[in-house]
Here is the input.
Amino acid sequence: MSAAQVATLSPEAVTIEERTPFQIVMTRFKRHRLAMVSMIVMIGIFLVTILAPYIATFEIQELSVNKYFVPWGTVDAETGRVHHMGTDNIGRDYFSRLIYAGRISLTVALLSVLISETIGVIVGAISGFFGGWIDSVLMRFVEFMLTIPQLPLLLIISSMILRDDQLIAIPDPILKFMGNILLLSPRDSRNAVLIVLVLAGFGWLSAAQLMRGTVLSLREQTFVEASRSLGASNFRIITRDMIPNAMAPIIVDASLGLAGYVVAEAALAFLGFGIQDPVPTWGNMLAASQQFMLDRPWLPLVPGLPIFICALAFNYIGDGLRDALDPRLKL
Amino acid sequence: MTAYFIRRIFQMIVVLFISAIATYALLNLAPGGPLQGLRQIQQGGRFQITEDDIARIRAQFELDLSLQYRFTRWLVGWPTGPIVLGGTEYFSDVVVGCRKPVESEILNDEGQYETKVTGCKEVVYMKDLVGRRTSRGLLRGDFGLSWRLLRDRPVSDLIVSRLPKTIQLIGLSTLLSLLIGIPLGVYSAVRQYSKFDYFFTSLAFMGSAMPTFFFGIIMILLFSILPKDAGWPYVPAGLSESVRGYTIPLIGEVAAGSVKDRILHLVLPVAVLTLVQIAGWSRFVRASMLEVMRQDYVRTARAKGLSERVVILKHAFRNALIPFITIVVFTLPGLFSGAIITESIFAWPGMGRLYILALGDSDYPVAMAIFFILAVLTVIATLLRDVLYTMVDPRIRLS
Here is the structure.
């Protein structure tokens, strides 16, 4: 082959189409069929909960007097609104409460993941990067916290917080912000903020361990050495080299964490130590329905199924993301 | 090696000590507690409760002592009074608490009046502690007295009466799930990518995503409520034995409290815990088996001409069990936590339910005792796991 022949080959003939890392990940993610289905299901659930005020026919605390446990699809005689899923034991619209509950449960899970992964990434990066006594102190603390049985500890802390809700002062702007997201009064959203704090307060531990491990292996890579020899500061190395490169396991951990938090929040509410009744969550609706299931067996299925579906879907999405982001990754 | 263990045991004690302080402070600093109801009665004005009555009740719950003295008395049963050395009493005038706190309404930052303790009318001195009832201390195996659930009875009585129920539940379900889960995991690994494997792994995946509380409720629906309504044989749900006798189609009459009754009540909670554990353990066994079957020594075993059966059972399976044993040991204390939810759904009178009741009723001595027992179990299990690692796998060196 002469030089002239090579020159005549068009660039299209020898190079394949260039794709961004995002496109590559998306192609691989699409191959995981269950993860794709889960993604679509979750987008649907999120849409419903975001549009809750437009879809819900009633307010969450609106009581219909003398209309307890009305059948599905009953029409309210005065206003013409429909009880899509009937009412509960004190005459509140079950369907409206269900979608508002989804909004609250999912927001709590999302915020918990966001906070815990952020703290975990920062602590883990510092611990892994600097090593030495900082690493020892931080990791001993994390190990110490993980040795204590988690569920009993969560229960103790939330029971204490619930008994006196003034115990931890939460700034008003945060309450108002949360109230705006959850469409509740700032006073009612206080409980949700506290549960987020409790869940994230324990959730960051494992994220920190994961991040530390990743940073430890990244620290030895040549590109870090290159950055350093170019005179980059520690801060720059951590924020520009370490954190972006450690994102894959963190993203997978976050999506699996979402499943965990949805279930954990529901479990706390189910045991009576989570978000309390006038504010609906899937967990406390399930707990409340348990005493009526002898006569109305379908009642617990309504709030229980979304918990299960979300837990399963987030797990599948996490699984798919793991395969897509880094097939070698084991978590 | 010895140095490692000494260090680990020392660490263990520190962890337990810190968690004891932390949880004790957490529970005792929070307002409310056993006097809450009393205050409401007093404010209602229907009963005349004098200051002295309140002081007496406070003394009964040791609420008149400062936190640090309360804690040491709870932990080691000390101080019980002044130290007597050679006939003289030392520290007898040390203030250890307040019998009658002065509460007043204070304007807080938000412009509202709040009741706060501002002073003390009558203090408690060390010498007043002489002759007071006290526990011998947690470290000497005395958990103190229950405040609410079984008023003034030792916490240990409560726990001892509940413990067998929890052990029954956990023991049975662990045994069953190991017996079923291990073969399933091994079979699934040996037939990797077969239809069975796909079916089973997706089932296990769903099982581990399933929240226990919802699963329990579905089981109650499927095996208790619906069949009962339809007139089919059903399994009773709730409590560990029934109050009244009942008749089940095909099984016949069941007397309350009989062996048959108890076994029937065990079925559902054990089934829930078993299925949840099968999901977790079989997945682990499968992964572990797959890992081992890729190893050279398995190929060697095959190359020697050993039968597939021997290769899998003797060479692969035994090695796959190594990490599995440590996992099982480590998860055992966690099972107690898992039992909290299962026991709550089925109103099973075990430790987990007791814990929930104690927290709900502000019966701190009971809650603290259970929490402490769980913490000790978990810490010991962590140590045991690390020891087992080195024992079963000499390649791992401890430093």
Observations:
- Chain B touches chain A through 46 residues (CB under 8 Å).
- Residues 308-345 of chain B form the longest helix (38 residues).
- The mean pLDDT of chain B is 80.
